[in-house]
Request: fold
Amino acid sequence: MLSSELLGFPADARVLIVNCDDFGMRRGINAAVVEAIESGIAGSCSLMVPCGGTEEAMRLLRERPEVSFGVHLSLVCEVGARNGLGPVAPKADVGSLVDADGELYTPERRSELMARARIEDVEVEFRAQVEAVVAAGLVPAHLDWHCLLDGGRGDIFELTVALAGEYGLAVRVWGEAGRQRVRGLPVVDHDFLDSFSLPLDGKAERYARLLRELPVGLSEWAVHPGLGDAQSRAVDPEGWRVRQSDYEFLVSAEARELIEEEGVFVVGYQGVREKWRRDVG
Reply:
């Protein structure tokens, strides 16, 4: 059975999660994510907790309780995104997760991190990130990972699924091994799209074609909208164009018209969460 059917959609329905990753990284991303959800075709977002724009992002979510969001569990964090405090948990409690300067590893060093991260430290940090969100008066719908395919390691994946069951949340799962582990729960039926994998040239046309050719079942796009503001250009000289081009398509009239013309159901993670809560919690 297709995951879309597990969520209650007809057998021939084309269902798409358009999730805005990296909410909380910085102000230009926060503004773009909110607009992509409120005026564009995005249906949910994922909040990064150990970042400079996190407090603003949490405030924006408190003002918009209808927005479906997840916790973008972060063991790695880009330079320029961090708030200078490293992990959310006390550094002494998560020593295997920080570098010699006491900071989270950057994505370029994720292999080094995966080789030394103790699962006990990962649990402490993941709990600290989820609890920070709960303490802010927010109720997430799902858990996913920043820059790590299904957690980066099997034991981290299993830990996250266990935490999701404890907190009553869903998990974004898109690697084949992870999908096999949670068979019977709603996860993507088709190849997962990370917008950073798309070339910049002709991106809008590529998105339009993907919508027209969207297969029956549940699909997910992890998009990364952001404004091309001065701060973004300064701290993210390579990635800001990816984010701006995502933003421009998501809020375009063409995207909204295509969704309507094609009869695509765009959803967030709330319905997925309810199914996971019944079957895992």
Observations:
- The chain has a mean pLDDT of 95.
- The two ends are 21 Å apart (CA to CA).
